Automatic annotation (TrEMBL):
GO molecular function: L-serine ammonia-lyase activity; threonine deaminase activity
Organismal lineage: Bacteria, Bacillati, Chloroflexota, Ktedonobacteria, Ktedonobacterales
Name recorded for this polypeptide: threonine ammonia-lyase
Entry's family note: Belongs to the serine/threonine dehydratase family.
Record's catalysed reaction(s): L-threonine = 2-oxobutanoate + NH4(+)
Length: 319
C-alpha cells in the first residue's frame, strides 16, 4: 500500500467540499481553566453522521470505479466508520453492507440502517466482525473497505487537521484519539507538512492498547480489547496507519476508561456538547498532560458524539 501524501489531503478536500461544511473549532473558558492553557476543540461530533470518519468515506466512495460501484461495498465497523460508508454510499448510489459486532451501539446500528445500509451482526469484538467481513467480500466480490488500510480514507479524514490549522495556525500540540489510527495518521500528514514543529499526540484506551503497543515496538501486534469505548476498541493494529505513525507521530498515550468517562462529563458541563467515549479520549489525555501544556496553544479532536444512553448514564454515575 502506498501511503497518502499532503497533496492527497488537498485533493480530498476538493472531493468532499461539495458535501461537507467545515466543522467548528471552539475554545471554552471552563475547559481552558481546567487545563490551564488555551485549548481549541475540533468538533467532529458536529458532522452529519456525528463523527469524523465521514470525510474519508466520501473521499473514497466518490473515487470508486463504475465497476466497483456496481459490485457494492462491504466494511466492518463498531459504528462510526460504518455510518461513514453508509452515508457516502447513499450519496453516490452504491449498495453498502456493514458487519458489526453483536453488541454494537444500537444508535449507530439504527443510523446505518436509516442510511440504507444492510447491517450484519457477527462475533463479540470488532476483529471478529472484520474477519467475517473479509470472508463475505471474497465470496461475493464486494469492494471491501478496510477501516484503516485505505489511502483515500486517511487522506479524507486528514482534512480536519487542515481546518484546524487554517483557523489557528499557531497551534503547537494536537491530541487525537486512536482506534485504527486513520485520524491520527491523517493529522500527522497535515501537521508535519505545514509545520514540523507541531506535536501530534495519539490517544488510545489502556483497555485496548494494540495500536499503542505497535507504535512502541515498531511492529504490528494484537492485544486484549476490553474497553467500553467502542471507537477505540480495536485488538489488532493496522498496517498503513501504523506506517505513517511510526514515521510522524510524536507521542502516544493511554487513558483509562474512568478518565474517558470523566472527560465525557467535562464536555457536557464545560462545553455543553455531547461527546462519545472515543471522542472524549483526547481531552482526557490533555488533562493528564496539563502541567506540560502551560502556555501552549492546544487543539483537542472531539472525534465523535455518537454515544449511547447506556454509556452516558455510566459516565454520569461514575463522575
Amino acid at each position: 500500500m502506498k501511503s497518502p501524501t499532503f497533496q492527497d489531503v488537498l485533493k480530498a478536500r476538493r472531493a468532499i467540499a461539495p458535501y461537507l461544511a467545515p466543522t467548528p473549532l471552539y475554545s471554552y473558558a471552563p475547559l481552558n481553566e481546567l487545563l490551564g492553557t488555551r485549548v481549541y476543540i475540533k468538533h467532529e461530533n458536529y458532522q452529519p453522521v456525528g463523527a469524523f470518519k465521514v470525510r474519508g468515506g466520501i473521499n473514497l466512495i466518490s473515487q470508486l470505479s463504475p465497476e466497483e460501484k456496481k459490485r457494492g461495498v462491504i466494511s466492518a465497523s463498531t459504528g462510526n466508520h460504518g455510518q461513514s460508508i453508509a452515508y457516502a454510499a447513499r450519496l453516490f448510489g452504491v449498495e453498502a453492507r456493514i458487519v458489526v459486532p453483536e453488541g454494537a451501539n444500537p444508535g449507530k446500528v439504527a443510523a446505518m440502517k436509516g442510511l440504507g445500509a444492510t447491517v450484519l451482526f457477527h462475533g463479540k469484538h470488532f476483529d471478529d466482525a472484520r474477519l467475517y467481513c473479509e470472508e463475505l467480500a471474497a465470496t461475493h466480490g464486494y469492494r471491501y473497505i478496510h477501516s484503516g488500510n485505505e489511502p483515500l480514507l486517511i487522506a479524507g479524514v486528514g482534512t480536519y487537521a487542515l481546518e484546524i490549522l487554517e483557523k489557528q495556525p499557531e497551534i503547537e500540540v494536537i491530541f487525537v484519539p486512536v482506534g485504527g489510527g486513520s485520524g491520527a495518521a491523517g493529522c500527522c500528514l497535515v501537521a508535519k507538512a505545514i509545520n514540523p514543529q507541531i506535536k501530534v499526540i495519539g490517544v488510545q484506551a489502556e483497555q485496548a492498547p494494540a495500536a499503542w503497543q505497535s507504535w512502541k515496538q515498531r511492529q504490528l501486534v494484537t492485544a486484549e480489547n476490553r474497553t467500553f469505548a467502542e471507537g477505540l476498541a480495536t485488538g489488532t493494529a493496522f498496517e498503513l496507519p501504523q506506517k505513517i505513525l511510526w514515521e510522524l507521530l510524536d507521542d502516544f498515550m493511554l487513558v483509562s476508561d474512568d478518565e474517558i468517562k470523566r472527560a465525557m462529563v467535562w464536555y457536557l458541563e464545560r462545553a455543553h456538547t455531547l461527546a462519545e467515549s472515543a471522542g472524549s479520549a483526547a481531552l482526557a489525555a490533555a488533562y493528564q498532560r496539563r502541567e506540560e501544556l502551560q502556555g501552549k496553544r492546544v487543539a483537542v479532536v472531539c472525534s465523535g458524539g455518537n454515544t449511547s444512553l447506556e454509556h452516558l448514564k455510566m459516565a454520569l454515575m461514575d463522575a
